[in-house]
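[Protein data]
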Amino acid sequence: MLWFRSTAVQLSRYSPYLLGRQLCAASTNIPVLTLFTKKPCPLCDEAKEVLEPYKNRLILQEVDITLPDNVALYDKYKYDIPVFHLNGQFLMKHRVDIQKFENQLAKLELQNDDC
């Protein structure tokens, strides 16, 4: 019961639209870009603006490292946000390296086309 409650609380933090996109992504292999953030984070806001043109090519999942469930993430990233993982793999931190991001996204899209 505790696991279910914890999961339900975590799921309730997301909008139904985002959950639907995540479920869809699981079946269509849309890349997931995870942004580890906290409030306030001007660099995170800047990064989201830079990534706005890519919103139709990926799912942007934000993880607030200051939440009680994310103590390990806070300890790991408290001085480095924003931190980005693409499909669960570290990609970049501090600022968006657009060339690196585009290269990795293109690789994933090519792999997904082969499926």
